[in-house]
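To assess whether ligand presence alters the predicted conformation, the chain was also submitted together with calcium ion. Input:
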Amino acid sequence: MRVLCLAATFAPWGIGCLGTGTGGGGDGDTDIDADTDVDTDADSDSDGDCPPAGVATQLPLGPPVALASATDLDGDGRMDLLVSSGDGVASFVSSGCGALGAAASVLAGTSITGLTHLGEGMAAAFDDSMTLHALSGADLGAGWSDPVAGLSSPGAVLAAHLDTDGDRDVAAFDATYGNLLRVENTGSGWSVRTQVALPAGISNVAAGDLGGNARDEILFLGGGLVEVVSVADFDFSDVRPLTFDAHAAAAFADFNGDGNGDVMVAAGSGVELWTSDGATNITLVDSTSLGGSVLDVATVDRGSGPEVAALVAGGGVRILDGTFAETGSAETAADASRIFGGDVDGDARDDVVVVTDAGSAWVWRTL
Ligand SMILES: [Ca+2]
Ligand SMILES: [Ca+2]
Ligand SMILES: [Ca+2]
Ligand SMILES: [Ca+2]
């Protein structure tokens, strides 16, 4: 019975099964691991649909995943997941104990090139007609769409505080990261504020606050590492190349606990800690090797301060504290490519969600 339920979830977006009881399980049960409903963490898992705590558990999502993001869409304090196969955007919302259930799919027939979360129940998607969509709520139904002009081809989008009004705005890139539009989130629409040409060699971007003011800094990653410092609203004219070594991804938080924002950066087979002086000057202070190419990093806070969760090629996940001591590890799948940190089960400790290219989420309810 439960195996049928698992199989049903491989159908296209929107087929309910996980966490919803609408799939093939005739008893309404949605036991994602099809085992014996052993409840390992005393979370009142009466119907067996909770991913067990302490190990990474595979939840099928559907079609291959080209883009993914994560935020709390329905405001219940639990991190939810947004994914796109390239055609439309689907939401998978956390149930009480961290199972991710298909909630909605929108923009069917629209080719999506970029997906990011704005926080506070909102996400942004960019499409190949150069339209930027704000998506809100578990059903992704509330929000707005506006064309944004100025790019030759649509590509990635990155949420960041580009001004000081407290909501996240969007940096929209062309397909080769050659140009960037700074787009204001007005609360009811998108407004392109400035445009800038970028240096060659960028393959990823990340944003977070490294001090100086309430706006975020942006890191350009790829065949180097470049810090772009916020100078004024929608003005990032202070561009600082930091190194020409390859860097893949970045996660922001105050990792050394001195009150200033820092950043953990995936670099080759290791992770680097760059700390800030509170005035946007960052310095490489330490690094560690994880024995394989580090594909992605995320910040997790399990109640004792921020740590970094690193995804190593092949599917291994390691959690490291600010001194690079390993505080947890898990194994996922060989095609795992993205990692997210956030509390999926509502116990106030961040968990880890890994997304694979083939269309699975691995939920690791951390201890
Ligand atoms: Ca939620
Ligand atoms: Ca803003
Ligand atoms: Ca710090
Ligand atoms: Ca948790």
